[in-house]
Write a structure and sequence with these properties.
Blueprint (H helix, E strand, L loop, with lengths): L2 E8 L6 E10 L2 E7 L10 E4 L1 E6 L8 H9 L2 E6 L4 H5 L10 E4 L13 H14 L4 E3 L4 H14 L3 E3 L14 E3 L6 H4 L5 H10 L13 H13 L7 H12 L3 H14 L2 E3 L2 H8 L17 H17 L2 H23 L20 H13 L3 H7 L2 H6 L17 E4 L13 E6 L2 E4 H14 L1
Parallel strand pairs: 1-4, 5-6, 6-7, 8-9, 9-10, 10-11
Antiparallel strand pairs: 1-2, 2-3, 4-12, 12-13, 13-14
Helix pairs in contact: 1-16, 3-4, 6-8, 8-12, 9-12, 10-12, 12-13
Bound molecules: zinc ion.
Length: 452
């Protein structure tokens, strides 16, 4: 099929809807859009731009194809890969109309392993810039190492994104996007009346990265890292939980709003990945094992995630788990404050590697959590379409349904501006002009479990 007949086109910029349109595709692009000659009286089908998952890790897998198919089947037509390798930079996956588009990737994530000192960090940034990285991602850094990373990235003209350096003043980070609201206390520390005290406390308890590099320890290190990635909240110490309690009790709305306005003014984006934050901090919540979308995860993933939940329940008692839950409620409130103050937001999931985060399906969980936080359906649609286009400087080819743009679209059976749940009502996906009906999407969905 090289066209869609009689659809309602949704403009994610303002939520306006133009009914009874025919959309023609050519060479993977939208060739033209015009009024339907004789509109039918059937149920309205709504067309929106394909969804973008702005925080995902499918290319970490040895064979990413099944996970990518799964993502596409949930309407994800593009993604920002959040961890790279020298091999990935040398050899990016070829365009494939059965997978979402790789929109950007960093090189290796910066941690004390490859960036333990300012000099090492600067050298690594230079290497990645020369190898063609689209951005630099920081996972673990001290404020001093961060300063070296930022300075070198500025020289190379590359944006820096990622996790805030441990114990830094949130306002001093010049990230283009902050991931996971920190992670940990991150943003919340910057909203506290006890900010200085908390910052010192956090800096005193940095994430314990294994003492790298150790020759011959590569594989063991890999296994350790994979276990940490599954649920980093598992490493939370009683002292860190005390700091969390303190941050919750001293949260100040005025400071939160001032921080949000700072992000708006400095165009610092936040990719909250609420589903990831919730899956970490509420890892043992029964909502996760009973999620019907779990059937799309592989047996191996389900087993690892169940074990992660068990370990979480074993380590943290009920009152400690309650602190994590309160923290999550406050993080959702923070997202609402960011939105109200005009701080830019991106939809993302942290899919692949994270416990309870099902590739593809998790972006819909993110929509629900953003809605629960109080974002309007239109704002949620924007965080997955026109906002990523703006962030990635791809507005000329994506973000709206307009002639000349990539034919990456999602068909919905209900108006996505009327209710966030309507974003789940997928009845088709168009990727580079190739149309997948509901019948085509099911085999894509099941390819992930079949491969395991
Ligand atoms: Zn991630």
């Amino acid at each position: 099929m090289d066209h869609l007949a009689d659809v309602a086109v949704v403009d994610p910029r303002d939520g306006s809807i133009t009914p009874h349109q025919d959309i023609h595709f050519s060479a993977g692009r939208i060739a033209s859009i015009g009024s339907t000659a004789s509109p039918g009286g059937g149920r309205t089908r709504f067309v929106v731009p394909g969804f973008v998952d702005m925080h995902a890790h499918p290319l970490n897998l040895a064979d990413p194809t099944p996970a990518l198919r799964l993502m596409l089947s949930f309407g994800i037509t593009g993604y920002r890969q959040m961890s790279g390798t020298p091999a990935l930079l040398r050899n990016r996956p070829a365009a494939d109309s059965r997978s979402p588009r790789l929109l950007a990737t960093p090189g290796s994530v910066l941690t004390p392993i490859n960036a333990g000192t300012p000099a090492q960090a600067a050298a690594e940034v230079r290497r990645q810039a020369a190898a063609g990285a689209d951005f630099i991602k920081v996972a673990v850094a001290t404020p001093v190492v961060y300063a070296a990373i930022q300075a070198e990235a500025d020289r190379a003209g590359l944006p820096v994104v990622g996790h805030l350096p441990t114990g830094i003043d949130v306002r001093k980070a010049r990230y283009r996007s902050i991931e996971h609201l920190g992670p940990g206390l991150g943003l919340l520390a910057g909203c506290s009346d006890h900010e200085d005290h908390l910052r010192t406390a956090i800096a005193g308890a940095p994430l314990k990265a294994p003492p790298f590099p150790i020759p011959f320890a590569g594989r063991i290190a890999e296994i350790l890292i994979r276990r940490i990635v599954l649920n980093p909240a598992q490493l939370t110490t009683p002292a860190m939980l005390d700091s969390t309690r303190e941050a919750i009790d001293t949260f100040t709305e005025d400071k939160a709003r001032a921080l949000a306005r700072h992000f708006a003014a400095s165009e610092t984006w936040n990719c909250p990945t609420l589903i990831r934050v919730k899956a970490q901090q509420l890892c043992a919540d029964p909502v996760f094992p009973s999620d019907p979308d779990l059937r799309y995860a592989t047996a191996k993933e389900r087993k690892a995630w169940t074990a992660a939940a068990k370990a979480f329940r074993r380590k943290f008692d009920e009152s400690q788990r309650a602190v994590f839950a309160e923290q999550f409620a406050l993080q959702q409130r923070m997202v609402k404050i960011l939105d109200e103050e005009g701080a830019p937001l991106l939809a993302g999931t942290d899919a692949v590697g994270a416990a309870w985060v099902v590739p593809g399906a998790s972006l819909h969980d993110e929509f629900d959590l953003l809605s629960e936080a109080g974002l309007t359906p239109l704002r949620i649609l924007q965080t997955a379409t026109v906002d990523p286009a703006r962030f990635l400087h791809r507005e000329d080819v994506s973000g709206t349904v307009d002639p000349g743009k990539e034919a990456d679209l999602v068909l919905l059976s209900a108006d996505p501006t009327a209710a966030a749940t309507n974003l789940h009502q997928l009845i088709g996906v168009i990727r580079a002009g190739r149309h997948y009906s509901t019948d085509d999407l099911n085999p894509l969905r099941n390819s992930n479990t079949a491969a395991a």
